Amino acid sequence: MPAARLAHVQNLLNQHATIRALVDQRRREIELLDAVRAQLPTPLREHCLDVSIAEDCMTLFLDAPAWATRIRFLADDIIASLSLTRITRIRTQIRVDQPKKPAADEKTKRARGLTANAARHLLDAAEDMEDPTLRETFRRFALRHVEHTAPDEV
How far are the Cα atoms of 12, 107, 126 from residue 115, in angstroms, in the given order? Predict the structure, then answer.
């Protein structure tokens, strides 16, 4: 995006008082997050995801309950290190981001749930069934997975 266009958007944001206040608050929160992380032991830093401020309370967002417990033990030291701010309390919240799963094609998805051996057992079971609908269901299910396995596995 050209710099002139970004400057235009920034000017529009600065003209609206509410948006300007929110942007300023977020900027202060990002600076505070950096200050808090600098006070934390190295293993804990990467698990401190974000911070928000409401009145005299700072909320730290962490990625697991175990890290939140560690933060509670360090809360007094963190508050003392931030003596220039009005913060007197620290809360913790857990924010678990789900890891992104790699995209898989349909063949891979279908082949995961049934091994070649299981497909062979389903075919064998289908041969001995008296109910034609159930027999055909077992047979179709097994064959659908057999076509996605190597020939020497079946």
Answer: 59, 13, 17
